[in-house]
Design a protein that fits this description.
Blueprint: H1 2-43, E1 53-64, H2 74-79, E2 86-87, H3 88-100, E3 104-115, H4 118-135, E4 140-145, E5 148-149, H5 150-156, E6 161-164, E7 170-171, E8 176-178, H6 183-189, E9 192-198, H7 206-209, H8 215-239, H9 245-253, H10 262-268, E10 273-274, H11 277-288, E11 297-298, H12 300-304, E12 318-325, E13 328-329, E14 336-337, H13 338-350, E15 354-363, E16 365-367, H14 368-383, E17 388-397, H15 399-402, E18 409-412, E19 417-419, E20 423-429, H16 431-437, H17 461-486, H18 490-496, E21 501-503, H19 504-510, E22 515-516, H20 519-529, E23 537-541, H21 559-567, H22 571-583, E24 588-591, E25 596-598
Parallel strand pairs: 1-2, 1-3, 1-11, 3-4, 4-6, 5-7, 6-10, 12-15, 12-23, 13-14, 15-17, 17-18, 17-19, 18-22
Antiparallel strand pairs: 8-25, 9-20, 16-24, 19-21, 20-24
Helix pairs in contact: 3-4, 4-5, 13-14, 17-18
Length: 599
Amino acid sequence: MLKRFLLNMLSSFVGAWIALALFILSVVLLLVGLAGNMAISAGKGVEQVKSRSILTITLDGPIEEREAPFEPDLSIILNGRLDAPQTLDVICQSIREAAKNDDIVAIYLKCGSPSASPATLNAIREELIGFRKTTDGKKKILAYGDGFSQGCYFVASAADSIFMNPAGEMGLQGLSSSNFYMKGLLDRLGVQFQVVKVGTYKSAVEPYILENMSEPARAQMDTLLGTMWGYIRSQISESRKGLTASAIDSLVSQDYIAFSKAESAVKAGLVDSLVYEREMNRRLAAIAGREEKKLNFVSPATLVAGGQWASAYSSKRQIAVLYACGEIADGNSNQINYENLVPVIVKLADDDNVKGLVLRVNSPGGSVYGSTQIGEALDYFQSKGKPLAVSMGDYAASGGYWISADADRIFADPLTVTGSIGIFGLLPNFKGTLDKLGVNVATVSTNPGAAFPSGFRPLDETQLAVMQKYVDRGYDDFTSRVAKGRKMKKEKVLSIAEGRVWSAITAQRIGLVDSLGGLRDAVEWTAAKAGVRDNYDVAAYPQVEPTVWNLIRLGAMTMAELKDAVDARDEDRLKIYLMRRILSRKPVQARMQEFRIDI
């Protein structure tokens, strides 16, 4: 009887495993079939770089820093969301290649609604300006949009000619930034937070404890956005001759150009002509010297295929570019995981083929411990006598600045957000939530601090004082590192710290940034500093090993989805989202407040 029971149980397990294996196999076969169909379809009209080709850059959807491997997500597979995002490095490399490639006669910008921060868009725009200077007007840039989002128009303003659909709209409105303040929701959930922090402007804790923005937080955002808008406005004015910066402000604030007829954009000098998209082929054909039906368009990925920038891993004169993108986390993470990044830094330090390092930082910060570990590894790299430069992307704030501060030179895009030198502790208390659920926690401890902090009861005054001292010590370490790295007096650092965020334009003036420039500027400086200015190669780290899963996008909840959930009053979804975010982070953080600048 027992033997029969065991055999039946074993057969059930085997059957379940076989079923699971068959299911996985069917998913793999589905993917292979999809890939095969895509390849067959592509084979009918594979892009090739031919004589008198046109580089077409579609500015629409997300633009990420660089290609990154994705983890499989069955829901995304079944929904058919197989589009890989565009990457900044490929777009920029393609523009540089187009300038020197005799087969490329022009660049065509197809404008939509790119999802990218101002610094990313400015990096593309700067490459386009460099293209015009390098080709000395011999190769043209044409931009077309059915309508223009503000970010896309900012990039397109660097073109020789701008065209818009007669029914289109010009989305110039200035800059804004919004954030959710969730105290009311958290009160309903029974979640309370106790805060320990250093820095008047360290506003990352505010959404959890306030119902609205504090005055210091509003003041710093007002200054940040004002500086950034001033730069964007002046750059558009410089490219669109005859259109002054004050005229742009007037168009935005008085004429509400975003809600005006398309003819108003032409009259104002923002657009050269109103045409339907089919008309663009005729104009491009005239430039290419070909019939419309024989126009050859190539994408950035096609143009740079086979000649990927930053892939010289076997070179003996390497300038390494190390990407640190995302929130700084402890342990397993798809973002900046110090456990993965530190060994790479150490390996680069010990590699005689690596002559210098550029740390590409695109991070709002995160774990204090993780930031410390990365910073120490970078110190080890410099101890080998090799130059270290930092190139800042969209953000290099708080922990992102911590890992940047001790570099030999810091480069930043004018629209980079940086600073936020401060630390906070956000300590959740779920006792109210448990009370609502009828759950009580009984604890027995040998010492007062044995279950501290617990998350199930508030901290008393003694415990709060201990946490404040802990945070103060971290802040002292942070500001001391900045003072050492920036060669400033501690008092000077303290006066510009306080958790305040700065645009790179202001950060350069106060000494937090050395030069305004992009990644290529940082690489060239590092090569010169390493003594290999005239003969060096670039290699990007960590090395990316693309797989089939790179076609699959992660299904993380975005800020837009969060807003949808709020609008729909989807409380269960919000609870899951908030609890996941709260519990996934360590209580003490060097991280800037999450916000999105709408451009």
